[in-house]
């Protein structure tokens, strides 16, 4: 019946009862003064009883209206608190409803802290729908503690006069009067309390308020717990999102490629470096089977998935789309969950293509410059441009190579050329020299740069003599037609050494008259002859045996160049 009533129905019924009571009062008053004889006594009695019962009926209707309003308010609040998962909004609606329904001055909602187990005030509101500050959290802890301990609601119409509480310090100090306190239950667990009071008026709360608040508390407790769980989930989600963002940033900052695959070898995760190495966007890689991209890696992934072993330092040179052949190094590790169950493979990949190219260039450089010298070079000091330095330049040219080339095939000619030039390069490097370049069937080298060598002239002469001896030994092993010899020219003087060229192509070389003079001396040397300039000879005269001193007419020189033929080193 109550659910079928409306506000207008109750208002209309109350108005009709008021009019009816007024009418009966008038009729009763009239009949009391004027009592016609034709009206039976029982009518007089019925009118009198009705006049007495109608006011009581009106009271019952008004009580019914108040109860209906409370129930309707609870239903509306239930819809609000259960339709929202925002904790602050739920708490405000709950407390404002409690204060409105009970006529309380203040209301507090306290929940048990999950860690400490102590009750904490989540919200305090007053009758003006304002949040209370912490300094206004003056409540009766005695009543609250009893409700928590016994799990039963408590009502006192005037705590100052109530023998249970009137001696409590908080009641006296804070002048607490009417107090309502009910427990909050969720799944048979007491999770908090709702506390309402009035410090101004006593007798505000009734047993009906207590029953009303108790019923409402059960509903509110569920709504509050749901809101708290939602807030916890949202906080957890925020943390997970922040952690994922952090992990994404970490993965993005790792220079090595990182890939994870599931047991079916589908890519689950791929960082930016891996995408750049494989030359594909991350969106295209995730979900793709890695075996289709790197088939050579398939067998090794099978081993990891089957036996759970780790594979370290695996190097391969696959052909990749739009990138060609690359040099890659892989580390494969089993990917396990907390229960140690294999979930896939974690792969770290490094692109060694550029490193391998530089290593090849390094090996090539080591074939031109002594490794001992390379170790001493300070790359910070080698800059574009030139630097004047005294050096000893050596030129060695193969004699008879042109005529020999007319008799053999190009392949055989190259084979013999490489053998002789390789022999010359090895000897020069062994003496700490720098091989500048190969000029057809000739080799150019210098000493005393880039690392200073106090005995650079002696090193150059010793290299020339060793080359002469090595060729003689070689000629004992090869056919007569392939027997060749070197003519060696050596000169000491100043030259400009440095990186010559452009940013795209530079050579570390020597330029100057010193270099030209050494070449002209070599052009005048006969097969197996080691000629050095007079300036070079003056530096090592005590260390070598010579056959004579004589001038030569060097091309491009106005004056003859005096040279000395070196025979051997003094013992």
From TrEMBL:
PANTHER family assigned to the protein according to its UniProt record, in alphabetical order: ADENYLATE CYCLASE, TERMINAL-DIFFERENTIATION SPECIFIC, ADENYLATE CYCLASE, TERMINAL-DIFFERENTIATION SPECIFIC-RELATED
Limits of the Guanylate cyclase domain: 392-522
One GO MF term attached to the UniProt entry: adenylate cyclase activity
Source domain of life: Bacteria
Protein name: Adenylate/guanylate cyclase
GO term, biological process aspect, one: cAMP biosynthetic process
Family of this protein: Belongs to the adenylyl cyclase class-3 family.
InterPro entries for this protein: A/G_cyclase, Adenylyl/Guanylyl_Cyclase_3/4, GAF, GAF-like_dom_sf, Nucleotide_cyclase, PAS, PAS-like_dom_sf, PAS_4
């Amino acid at each position: 019946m109550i659910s079928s009533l409306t506000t207008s129905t109750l208002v209309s019924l109350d108005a009709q009862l008021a009019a009816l009571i007024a009418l009966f009062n008038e009729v009763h008053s009239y009949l009391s003064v004027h009592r016609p004889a034709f009206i039976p006594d029982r009518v007089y009695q019925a009118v009198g009883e009705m006049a007495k019962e109608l006011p009581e009926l009106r009271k019952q209707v008004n009580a019914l209206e108040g109860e209906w309003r409370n129930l309707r308010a609870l239903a509306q609040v239930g819809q609000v608190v259960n339709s929202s998962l925002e904790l602050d909004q739920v708490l405000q609606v709950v407390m404002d409803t409690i204060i409105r329904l009970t006529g309380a001055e203040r209301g507090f909602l306290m929940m048990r802290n999950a860690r400490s187990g102590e009750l904490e005030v989540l919200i305090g509101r007053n009758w003006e729908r304002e949040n209370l500050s912490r300094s206004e959290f003056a409540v009766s802890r005695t009543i609250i503690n009893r409700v928590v301990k016994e799990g039963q609601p408590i009502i006192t119409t005037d705590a100052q006069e109530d023998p249970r509480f009137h001696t409590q310090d908080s009641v006296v100090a804070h002048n607490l009067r009417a107090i309502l306190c009910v427990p909050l239950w969720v799944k048979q667990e007491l999770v908090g309390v709702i506390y309402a009071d009035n410090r101004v008026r006593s007798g505000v709360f009734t047993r009906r308020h207590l029953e009303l608040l108790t019923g409402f508390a059960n509903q509110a407790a569920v709504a509050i717990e749901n809101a708290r769980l939602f807030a916890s989930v949202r906080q957890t989600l925020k943390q997970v999102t922040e952690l994922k963002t952090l992990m994404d940033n970490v993965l993005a900052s790792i220079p090595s490629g990182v890939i994870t695959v599931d047991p079916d070898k589908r890519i689950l995760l791929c960082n930016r470096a891996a995408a750049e190495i494989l030359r594909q966007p991350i969106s295209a890689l995730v979900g793709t089977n890695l075996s289709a991209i790197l088939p050579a890696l398939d067998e090794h992934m099978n081993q990891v998935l089957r036996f759970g072993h780790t594979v370290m330092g695996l190097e391969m040179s696959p052909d990749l789309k739009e990138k060609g052949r690359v040099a890659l190094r892989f580390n494969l590790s089993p990917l396990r969950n907390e229960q140690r169950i294999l979930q896939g493979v974690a792969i770290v990949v490094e692109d060694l293509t550029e490193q391998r190219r530089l290593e090849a260039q390094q090996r090539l450089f080591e074939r031109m410059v002594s490794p001992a010298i390379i170790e001493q070079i300070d790359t910070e000091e080698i800059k574009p441009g030139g630097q004047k330095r005294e050096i000893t330049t050596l030129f060695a040219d193969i004699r008879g190579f042109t005529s020999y080339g007319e008799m053999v095939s190009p392949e055989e000619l190259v084979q013999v050329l490489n053998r002789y030039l390789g022999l010359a390069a090895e000897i020069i490097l062994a003496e700490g020299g720098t091989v500048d370049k190969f000029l057809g069937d000739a080799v150019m080298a210098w000493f005393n740069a880039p690392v200073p060598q106090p005995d650079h002239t002696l090193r150059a002469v010793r290299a020339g003599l060793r080359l002469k001896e090595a060729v003689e030994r070689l000629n004992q092993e090869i056919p007569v037609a392939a027997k060749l010899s070197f003519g060696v020219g050596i000169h000491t003087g100043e030259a400009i050494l440095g990186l010559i060229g452009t940013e795209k192509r530079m050579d570390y070389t020597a330029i100057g008259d010193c270099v030209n003079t050494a070449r002209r001396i070599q052009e005048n040397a006969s097969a197996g002859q080691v000629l050095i300039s007079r300036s070079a000879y003056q530096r090592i005269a005590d260390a070598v045996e010579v056959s004579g001193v004589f001038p030569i007419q060097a091309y491009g020189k106005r004056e003859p160049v005096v040279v000395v033929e070196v025979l051997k080193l003094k013992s």
